[in-house]
Amino acid sequence: MRIRDLNWMQLEEHLEQDDRIVLPVGSTEQHAYLSLETDNILAERASVEAAEPLGVPVLPALAYGVTGFTAYPGSPTLRESTLLAALADIADSLLGQGFARILCVNGHSGNTGAGREMARSRAPAVAWHELWDGRPDAIAAEIDPDYDHASWSESIPWTRLPGVEMPTGRKPPVVWPEEGNPETWRAALGDGSFGGLYQRSGEDENRVWQAAVEGIRRRLERSAPAAESTH
């Protein structure tokens, strides 16, 4: 359940029975023909779908992260130290309110270093979960190993934009410049995709998506209160 659908009194009552909460973490940045909020949309929606059957509340996504795409309009970045401080402040505030098991669901790889550092320093109360790691990544590679940023694996109905037609061809893998900076990366990337198909079938999309949702749900189930645990 999204906390936007609760008031503080309802959440406090819920907290008396279950001290779990989910924090999706994303980034606002270019994703070629997809929404600039692709990472936020995916991290938050997957968290909600995973947590809903368990009755675990989900916070709004932390919408800014560490990105190297700042040469593209609408792609702001945080310094890694800023992200680390923001994550630590949010986690500490929640712990102070009585939440004892916080699962951070990360949809953007640039956030991983800061996120894991924060979670390690607050373990076991805080855990860090990469949205695509493990089974989702394995399924995507089985379907089509040529996938990456802004390719078919992130192209899902809720990240595609009305009126924007997706290219039908396969983009060759990007040749990265020796001197890496936002300007040279934009010159190499062009539209922003790292390469591969821009879209595959709904069946392929759903296989990867469901694996991502199930991965979050398993993490939440492992931390369920003893009275609710099925393990």
Structure, described:
- The protein is mainly alpha-helical and 231 residues long.
- It has a single domain (3-222), classed as 3-Layer(aba) Sandwich (Rossmann fold), CATH 3.40.50.
- The chain contains seven helices and five strands, in the order H-E-H-H-E-H-E-H-E-H-E-H.
- The protein has helices at residues 8-15, 38-51, 80-96, 112-121, 135-143, 182-189, 202-222, and strands spanning 20-25, 101-106, 126-130, 170-171, 196-197.
- Strands 1-2-3 form a three-stranded parallel β-sheet, sandwiched between helices. Strands 4-5 form a two-stranded antiparallel ribbon.
- Strand 2, helix 4 (112-121) and strand 3 form a beta-alpha-beta unit.
- Helix 2 (38-51) crosses helix 7 (202-222), helix 3 packs parallel to helix 4 and helix 5 runs antiparallel to helix 7.
- The longest helix has 21 residues, at 202-222.
- The chain is globular.
- The model is unreliable at 227-231 (pLDDT under 50).
List the helices and strands and how they pair.
Layout lengths: L7 H8 L4 E6 L12 H14 L28 H17 L4 E6 L5 H10 L4 E5 L4 H9 L26 E2 L10 H8 L6 E2 L4 H21 L9
Parallel strand pairs: 1-2, 2-3
Antiparallel strand pairs: 4-5
Relative strand content: 5-15%
Can you summarize the main beta sheet? 3 strands, parallel
Helix proportion: 25-40%
CATH topology: Rossmann fold
Q: Which outline best applies? A: globular
Count of folded domains:
1
Q: What is the subunit arrangement here?
A: single chain
Distance between the termini: 23 Å
Counting helices, strands and paired strands, the structural category is mainly alpha
Integer-rounded radius of gyration: 18 Å
Counting DSSP E segments of at least 2 residues, the number of strands comes to 5
Strand order of the largest sheet: 1-2-3
CATH superfamily: Creatininase
CATH class: Alpha Beta
Q: Treating each run of at least 4 consecutive H or I residues as one helix, how many helices?
A: 7
Looking at the overall shape, the CATH architecture is: 3-Layer(aba) Sandwich
Q: Indicate the mean pLDDT.
A: 95
Question: Segments where pLDDT lies below 50 for 5+ residues?
Answer: 227-231
Please provide the ordered H/E string of secondary-structure elements. Answer: HEHHEHEHEHEH
